[in-house]
Write a structure and sequence with these properties.
The protein is mainly alpha-helical. It is built from 16 helices and two strands.
């Protein structure tokens, strides 16, 4: 199963060959992001403005990796995609004289406003991208649309989005001092990773709304069985398991949120979704992932649960260990939330998406980072966050 999923993930993350020869490559090579080449290969009007600007944002993560990377990339992509979706709706509702505002230009204006705020050093380059887009030969449906009006609408929406971001409490709240005792997580010397702890959510009514129940009691038979499972994996890791752990680690740019967005971009293009559909899918998926991360770190700092490598020092790591508590798995929270929205949007892709959820969870166990109950709780959070996003409104 793993080789099959590596080839599938490669569709979104790399310019790999189709299901045959690309599978022979090693995961580290497969992870080279080259989706831009694929998007550039299709006609301008066959790629939505939302996916085009989404890719440009992801490229910026590699150019200027943000601090608190998993959280900040999720935050940037959430505000970007929600601004895009709101800009689409505003442009569709607007009319100045005989012409309607250009939806594509509205997405471009919103994207420039949001990304320039997050990446001020790249504002000029972003403006150049927009100028190039507006000057390009578009699809016939855009010929009778007002690009200037669409751009103005988008910029206004983007500015409003950034005003919302300025008050979202990001990195303001502290989880406090880690408690001490049996079964408690012990911090490394590095600063504790807070994720989106305390940040204002989009759909949750409170950070603990979908908090899972506590993990198995430290030293209980259930805990010891879960610990023994991780130890057995550590003692008998196969090269394929190590490769899976490393492939899904996603600890460097474009990080977990960026890699998941690349998968969404590919599906949107492959299934030829409209601009409104594309913007809605990206907005829902990113907002669900954003809220899932808030709920995840709320639970982490409610339980402060010990990592497997601290409970049993004989367990070795195949990938780096992030400096935050074990329960629940952040990787599973984020991946499950995002991919569950994609399953809803692309029912025919259920098997592929669920395989990514399952294998990304297993990869954390193969890496020595998490117990199975961490993965299960993370998946439950992600599914719940996705349900709230799909039932809610981002208008």
């Amino acid at each position: 199963m793993f080789s099959r999923t590596r080839c599938w993930a490669g569709l979104a993350l790399v310019a790999a060959a189709a299901w045959g020869g690309g599978c022979a490559e090693q995961p580290a090579e497969l992870r080279r992001p080259a989706a831009a080449a694929q998007l550039d290969a299709v006609k301008f009007w066959e790629v939505t403005a939302s996916t085009r600007w989404n890719r440009r944002a992801i490229d910026l993560f590699a150019l200027r990796p943000p601090g608190n990377a998993q959280a900040q990339t999720s935050r940037i992509l959430s505000y970007l995609s929600i601004a895009q979706y709101r800009a689409v709706l505003a442009a569709e509702r607007g009319k100045i004289g005989p012409m309607h505002p250009s939806v594509s230009a509205a997405v471009g204006g919103a994207s420039v406003a949001v990304l320039s705020a997050f990446f001020p050093l790249d504002a000029s380059a972003l403006e150049n991208h927009l100028d190039t887009d507006l000057a390009a030969d578009g699809w016939p449906g855009e010929q009778n649309k007002d690009a200037s009006a669409g751009e103005a609408i988008g910029r206004a929406v983007g500015a409003a989005m950034m005003a919302q971001a300025a008050t979202d409490n990001y990195l303001v709240a502290s989880p406090g001092v880690p408690p001490v005792g049996p079964g408690r997580w012990v911090s490394a010397a590095a600063p504790i990773v807070r994720g989106l702890y305390g940040t204002r959510p989009f759909f949750l009514t409170s950070a603990d709304q979908i908090r899972p129940g506590p993990p198995p009691a430290f030293g209980s038979p259930e805990f010891l069985a879960a610990l023994a499972e991780v130890r057995a994996m550590s003692d008998t890791r196969t090269p394929e398991q190590v490769a899976m752990a490393q492939f899904y680690a996603w600890g460097t740019a474009p990080f977990t949120p960026g890699n998941l967005n690349l998968i969404a971009d590919e599906l949107i293009v492959e299934h030829k979704r409209t601009e409104r559909e594309a913007a809605r899918i990206l907005a829902d998926a990113n907002a669900a992932m954003f809220d899932a991360q808030i709920a995840c770190f709320d639970a982490k700092f409610a339980y402060w649960f010990i990592r497997p490598t601290k409970a049993d020092p004989a367990i070795t790591l195949a990938i780096p260990l992030p400096n935050h508590p074990s329960y629940p798995s952040g990787h599973s929270c984020l991946t499950s939330a995002f991919m569950t929205v994609l399953i809803d949007a692309f029912p025919s892709e259920r098997e592929r998406c669920e395989t990514i959820i399952t294998e990304s969870g297993l990869s954390r166990m193969y890496g020595g980072l998490h117990y199975r109950f961490d993965i299960d709780a993370g998946r439950a959070i992600g599914v719940a966050a996705a349900a709230l996003a799909r039932a809610g409104s981002l208008e």
